[in-house]
Every structure is written in C-alpha cells, then in structure tokens.
Amino acid sequence: MNTILLTLAVSAGIAFVLGFLLGFFKKMFYVPTDPTAEKIRECLPGANCGGCGYPGCDGFAAACAAGKAPADGCSAGGAEVAKKVGAVLGVEVSPVKYAAVLACRGSKEHAQMKGFYNGVKTCAAAKTLGINGTKMCSWGCVGFGDCVEACNFNAIKIGEDGLPHVDYELCTGCGACARACPQQLIQKVPAERKGSIALCSNRNPNKTVILKQCKAGCIKCGKCERTCKQGAIKLVGGIPAVDYTKCISCGECVTGCPTKVLTLQQNIVSL
C-alpha cells in the first residue's frame, strides 16, 4: 500500500513540475500574433498549396495583414474567400479566377520519342539527366506527372495520350502545377479570358525538324500573324503571342493554323 501511495505522490509531483515548466516556457517564448492575421487565417481554406506565393496559409495571412499580399491572393479559396478577407481588411475586392493550361500537344500520337527511358520516373529527373526530356522535341511535355503530384486538389490526371489533362471544376488556379513543371509548359491564365492561345512551346526555327519531332508543333509559318486583322498576334521567340487587349476572339487564326496549334481559350477552359 505504501508503494502505491508513494508512486502516486511521485507521479503527481512530476506532473506538477512539468505543468509548471510548460507554463513558464510558454510565457517565456510567447510570440505575439497579429489579431488581423488570425482573422484572415480563419477565412482561408487551409490548403497550404503555396499558390499565393507564401509558405502556407499562415504565411499568406501574415503578409496580407501587413499589406504585402492582396486580399484576393488566395487562389485556392476563390472569390468567396477573397470577399471574406476583404471584409476583414475593410477593402472591396474583385477577385480573378485562374486556371492551368498546358502549352503542349505532343501526345503519344503526335510526338516522337527518343527511346526507352530507364531512369527515375519524374519529369524533373528526365530533364536533368542530360537528355532534356523523353521526346525528340526538347520543349515537349515529359509526361511523368510532376504536375499531378504537385496538385493538392486532384485536378490533373495523365491521360491515355500521355499528357496532363485538367479538370476545371476542381482546378483552383493555384499555380502549383506550373511551378512543378520543369519544362515550364503549364500557364496560369485568367479563367474567364477569351481569345486565342498557342498550345505549343517548341522554339526550334527549323520547320522540317519540328514536323519530324512532333506533328502538332508550331512550324513558325506566321500565317496567324498575317491572318489577324486586329494585329493581336506576333511571333515572339517562335511562339504566337496574343495581345488580349486587341484579340476579339474571332477564331480566324485558329481556322488558318496548319498544325492546329492555336485554339480559343474558352473552348478548353470550361467553368
């Protein structure tokens, strides 16, 4: 009986000392928090996707409270979260929804492969092993799905054609997939934007080589630039670049493109 009582007394004493020390160190190392940042943090979805450019939701909340990040900077939360954050800050926001678009059509059907790849099955590994990807087109999508792994919303899948496909009902436009792509093929674009967009990133000036590497590649013919009556398209680095302040979404450049590189964004980004 004495042993039991002694054990209980010692356990209670240890618990008391530990509780006192925890309270002491908590007070000693206490870091005051910004109440505004705490309110903003409560509005956020907690995805910690990094789409805002800060290390997680806590980082964004602190930056937003300090005036270093915009109220609509949480792309994962969308318009609803932006309005809540704006209410906390006392500002009115007009959030823009973004979406991911792959600027490559180098599918298994269209793109020539270099050979059998026997390395680590990640796009980054294939890019850095000195072979610059798995396809003859050095600018093409590798297809190992680094973008899929980076997406916290299950919005990207590798299709049977070997290319990533975006589910726009799930895509929040956070940009994590774009940052994960070593080929820089994924663009973060305003989801409601209308107009022509080029789905190719091949900058090789040799037309013959391009067609051998990928049947769906841009051959730099310049027909889109000549066709556009609004002067909205210019070849920049061998890729059609669209001025959306001039583009009227007429589709003439899309119809005239011999390899169907151009398409209207509203036809692929469905909201």
Task: Describe this entry's structure for a reader.
- There is one protein chain.
- The chain has about 270 residues and is an alpha+beta fold.
- The chain is built from 10 helices and 8 strands.
- A two-stranded antiparallel ribbon has the order 1-4. Strands 2-3 form a two-stranded antiparallel ribbon. A two-stranded antiparallel sheet has the order 5-8.
- A hairpin with a 5-residue loop joins strand 2 (about 155-160) and strand 3 (about 165).
- The chain is elongated.
Compose a concise summary of this entry.
By secondary structure, the protein is an alpha+beta fold. Helix content is 34%, strand content 11%. It has helices at 2-28, 35-43, 56-65, 78-89, 123-128, 146-150, 176-180, 207-213, 223-227, 252-256; strands at 98-102, 156-158, 164-166, 186-190, 196-198, 233-236, 239-242, 262-264.
Helix content: 25-40%
User: What is the typical, i.e. mean, pLDDT?
Assistant: 88
Q: Please report the number of helical segments.
A: 10
Uncertain spans: none
| Rg, Cα atoms, Å | 26 Å
Main β-sheet, in a few words? 2 strands, antiparallel
